[in-house]
Amino acid sequence: MFFNAHHAPIGAFATFTFGFKGPKGGLGLELGKPPDENLFIGAESLRLNVFEALPFFSPPSDESARYAIEQISRNEGGAERPVVVPFPDEKITRRFRLSTDTWQAGDLVFRVLSPVRPVPEPGRASSRQLRLVLAPAVLAELTLDNRASDRPRRVFFGYQGSDPYSAMRYVSGAGRIPLQGVSQGLRTGIFVRDRAVSPGTGFNIESLVAPAVEANRTFGLGPVAALTGIVPPGKKISFRFAVCFFRHGPATAGLKTRYYYTRLFKDIEEVASFALSNWNVYEKWAAQADALLERAPLSETQKFMMAHAIRSYYGSTELLDLDGRPVWIVNEGEYRMMNTFDLTADHLFFEMRMNPWTVRNVLDMFADRYSYRDRTHLPNDTRLHPGGVSFTHDMGVANVFAPPGRSAYELFGLSGCFSHMTHEQLVNWVCCAATYALRTEDLVWLKRRAGTLAACLKSLVNRDHPAPAKRTGVMKLDSSRTLAGAEITTYDSLDASLGQARNNLYLAVKTWAAYVLLERIFELLGQTSRARTASRQAEACANTIAAHATGEGYIPAVMDEPSESRIIPAIEGLVFPWFAGCREALDENGRFSTLVRALRRHIETVLKPGICLFPDNGWKMSSTSENSWLSKIYLCQFVAREILGLRRPELYERADEAHAHWLLRPESAYWSWSDQIVSGIARGSKYYPRGVTSILWLSGNPQNAGRREESGRWPVPLRAPGGKREPQERALPA
User: Fold this and answer.
1) Within a 10 A sphere around the Cβ of 731, how many other Cβ atoms?
2) Rounded to 5 degrees, what angle do the CA atoms 382, 388, 389 make?
3) Residue-range domain boundaries for the chain
4) How confident is residue 61, by pLDDT bands cut at 50, 70 and 90?
5) Which of 128, 284, 563, 734 might form a disulfide with 558, Cβ 3.0–4.6 angstroms?
6) Residue 130 pLDDT > 50, yes or no?
């Protein structure tokens, strides 16, 4: 029950995180970790001078001691002082769903509504549509049932901000709108439209819930701020709050942008007023999102992990305004790198379902600003050969855009972590671009990017081998940006079984997928010569991979080099032809039957204890590494089950239970959803967005154990304004 979770507005790089016991959550803006603030959510107990709160704060301390060093704070006459204590664990329950998070402790209920909606495309959507979805706020409701009591009781909701350079303040309902609130400066705050609620600041929460002098609730030196209200005896009353965020002015360096919501709202108070005025809309949306996931044919464990991951994704999202143009950013969790491309390729499935325009937006930025051209070299050879276009690992870090053609991550002259991912990012651009074009039928964009796609095909072929007769479809040359080093893959923190790019099985299958998609794209564009080139490369790549299958049934993780490692992500690349609609390429009796059958036998062979299963039945990405990535497990589960037809319900059920346990262990639960799990504990990629690969589970039937069905078929696209097509099923909910 006590795990941190995001409650995040969309596109604000902000989150109301809480759930882990102690001062381990709070109102975070642009952070790579929970804010570690005291949260005070509770009500007056039936016991005199005792107030009970959810356990998200540390034991009270008297901040006044910093000012009155030689004085002892005590009430006159030695009367018992009011005290705020946590509810006992046994009195607390939690119901965690996709869009709502409901806590109950005794006769108090606290419910938070988090948005899960498609992002409207600026320039096409109305101002109201944009304001509703992009308002940097989440809503919360605090209810106290005082019908069994014969005296009034006070409820409270507040926090102790963690920004040392900005004071806590209160907002009192002057003017036309009865807005009451508390905030830290102009950036974070909690607001209510109810004059009966009193805001205040003080040295500690006790001074606000039981002030000796009411007028002192506006004490300017107080680091704690809270809103309090009274529930009369015999009444049950709910108080509705908006937890809001706002950043004025320039938001990024490198490129001067601001948050898009600043075009829609002038300040945090306007955000609060708008959000509270539209409570019924947000409540309806939350109920719809909850219902969609509740109806899905998933286990409760899968629903939990998907809800947890989607919330974490939204906590990393950022919609910026660059001279009137929208820029979509997904930050990389604790690392805060901007649009890390190997994450973009995994967010693809979620974003194509929700808001396909964001995929196009990111691809355009990579093509226009974060592409580069290189040359290539064979290992242990200084001679340079033609290379071509590729794309950077990311666009920058922590709201600082990198220079054109450079990333925050990649260094020159390395062979391990922080080296270049030139080939993988090239493949990622192709797979994302082709998937976007094929699923939306956006022919206008496809024709505009035809030159880029042609350059990508040439670049891919050049990285195979400089001699056409020696080309096998698999990457053999490293980028000149590595100097005498070597390229890596997204699995940068693993051993060579997944970390090395050259001759890597995982990357080879993904490269095959890119060629398959390019063949289809160039057929659509009427470029038959390029389509034939892509076709030849796809066939060569498939044959090369299948030829490396061993008598034991597995394919080595690194081909043509000594390697005993066996990896699950060998099958990962199959998702792109399936998702883009090129499913004939995955037919076990079709053109690439030898590849599909070899990969099916491979995954059946490696998914065994001691190879790619941990002792707790969790999936192990590589037989030679203890580092396993949940986002990739979710994706590979889908491929194994729905594409390769590996129907073993107990295999998935036991694994899901293990994977959920990894997230909920005390060592991991503080970090909300995390990706890199080492021996069952989150050790890297924490507070992370990548787990939305789990959305693929809604495209199939995880509980179907008997037959392979086309449960993942997407609806026929609808014509959108401007001649483009976008999928009918774009939203959660539909």
Assistant:
1) 17
2) 130
3) 14-63+81-289, 328-705
4) low
5) 563
6) yes
